[in-house]
What does this fold into?
Amino acid sequence: MAMDESVRKAVLGAVPSLRAFAISLCGNVDRADDLVQETMLRALANIDSFQPGTNMSAWLFTILRNHFRSEYRKRRREVEDSDGHYAERLKTQPEQHGQVELREFREALAHLPTDQREALILVGASGFSYEEAAHICGCAVGTIKSRVNRARTRLAELLSINSTDEFGPDEQTRAVLAGGGE
Amino acid sequence: MNERKPVGQQKPMETAASRHKDNAKPAKLGREVQARLGQQLRAMYDDVVSQGVPDRFTELLNQIDGTGNKDKR
It folds into this structure.
């Protein structure tokens, strides 16, 4: 099929963020790349259903997200809903930049339920508005907002990030103990 | 020798600590926490974005574009 140059550019241009989204979703680079490839094939096969002037990137994200969801349902027996699985897979990923913080963050993210994870990524990293994210996930804007909030709260718990001072109470207590012991 | 520990002194400290803990558990996340989570999330995401477009995807498009239906799966 002959491809419109603008379509080609738009699709290729979306690949890096589609990959980032896919990897964040499934936690596995190879599977993520397969998801992206399938997304491209589906998009090009259905390019007529794309409305020119609308957001091509959001359209592609929707295709990828829906494909991931249906794959996920198929693979549920293998993947299961349990928390640890994704994290286990993530641990086998090569650590390209050796950033411990990043790895810990990935692992924490993998512990979130899928709908919270996708909402958080779309809004917090992909740069979509709540409205766009709601459209991509096929749910209400309020649902996206509450998923993002729950995702943040859970992540903060998992990563032990407290809103108040990190060393405040402990250091105070330690100082009191040290002083009182003499 | 067997001096008793100043038990009385420990109690108020414990109460103070646990009270502080309660205060540190807000229903809503503070701005700083949200900012830090956002930063880490984007760092993770941008790490992949910065890898650009792997060859396999450019090749895929070339294949679809160039060979028409000949090589269709």
